[in-house]
Amino acid sequence: MSFSAVQAALSGLRSCQEDIGTSMDMVIDVAMDLVESNETEHSSSLGTLQAKILEYAELDREINCFSNIVEQFNSEVSQQSPEALFSLSDRVKEQFDAKMASLSDAELHNHQKVVAFKEGVGSALQPENGEAEDNQDEDIALTQRYVNFTCPLTQGDMENPMKNKVCNHYYDEGAILAMIKARHKQHKKFRCPVVGCENINVTQADLVPDLLLKRRIQKRNASQV
Ligand SMILES: [Zn+2]
Description:
globular, binds zinc ion, 3 strands, mainly alpha, 59% helix, three-stranded antiparallel beta sheet, single chain, 2 domains, Herpes Virus-1
């Protein structure tokens, strides 16, 4: 095993991760279609899709974990004698197994794309043992949620709507990130720009993409052309 072979293997894994990311985006897309089709019986299909996206998240995490360990050893080994290489694969495996054993399934739900999936399907995905919500309420909530496509910062339609998990307000991604950055540069907090909102400290970590809303805006725009 040579140094360049390791690098090649690592970059192979990275392109594999890109494919996983694309697959996850596709799962999200299918889920959004289901949600938009408004079929009442879709929640079991959404459950299947969620299981799928969690599988991808696990694979993604495994590759991350493996690549990190290999990279770490790589920098170490390049300064050592060739003999050190012989025990390397055993040591990588050992560390990898230990790291994987320390990870929980619950953490997979924090994967960026799993979060996006859940935000996208929203209340359409009901917890397996949870109480079913009243469908009518859900429809009203959805309508209210999507009445406004306007970003409070740009006053134009949002292109990449981001939802603030703290106060549930929406902004366009580019505008909100620029504002937060500008304020933080002055060592100031950024207050939510929505009139009447009491959230005085909006941070990037509070923001999640709302893919369903993005699709609705895109569809509306397409129908207007
Ligand atoms: Zn707000």
